[in-house]
Amino acid sequence: MIVAEREMERREHLIWADRPRRAARRTPLVRAAFGMVYAGFAVVWIVLAAGLQDGVFEPPDDPLAYIFPAIGLPFLAIGLWITISAFRGGGPGGAPVYALSDRRALLLAPGRPVVGVYLADIEDVTIVEQPDGAGDIVFAGRRIPADFAFRGVARVNAVATEIATARGLASAS
Hints:
The protein is of the alpha+beta class.
């Protein structure tokens, strides 16, 4: 993948790169639904606090009464942000790219900084395989972020073998 090749350091060689399966990326729909419900409650709050009662809008006489509906605006903004951020990067080019080189494992997510860990820093690799042969590869080590993992990898055992081989080469050099 061209995106992964651009991140290679000098004399570093790309071994494997891929995107997660689409099934691994369904959670944004749940997050978007939550955001819509959250924003919907904020809209109800704002409308009712502004004076809409029994289908008739009655503006308040006191100018300070406009503060009460304004309290709902930050909640509306948060709900819209949750909804929009769930779909941001959700298009065909929006999935993260996982890459393995002879030196590093890389996670390239759109709109986020590249996260790379050196193979020599990996202390443990956990594989979670599903019946269809896909699965997750979770990395562990003192210098590795707690959530660093390749999720939704199509042929998880083949990729795990590549990682083990690359780790052996990295520790030998």
